[in-house]
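Field guide to reading this record: the first block holds the primary sequence, the second block holds the structure written as discrete tokens, and the final block holds curator observations. Each block starts with its own label. This record concerns Beta-catenin-interacting protein 1, catalogued under organism Ursus americanus.

BLOCK 1 — SEQUENCE
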Amino acid sequence: MNREGAPGKSPEEMYIQQKVRVLLMLRKMGSNLTASEEEFLRTYAGVVSSQLSQLPQHSIDQGESQPGAQ
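BLOCK 2 — STRUCTURE
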């Protein structure tokens, strides 16, 4: 994946997209987001929906346990 820059995207758009992705990953990992971070995600709901489909899936999301875990 080329991270040097996306054609047709401004630095501000790239920043918003990256911030949304980081906040979503933090939330997915169980971190509590601040009120301002939650507001940011609500403000950029369109970006959020496109980023959600790109988040990696983890075994914890499917409720799978690790071998040997009780």
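BLOCK 3 — OBSERVATIONS
The mean pLDDT is 76.
The radius of gyration is 15 Å.
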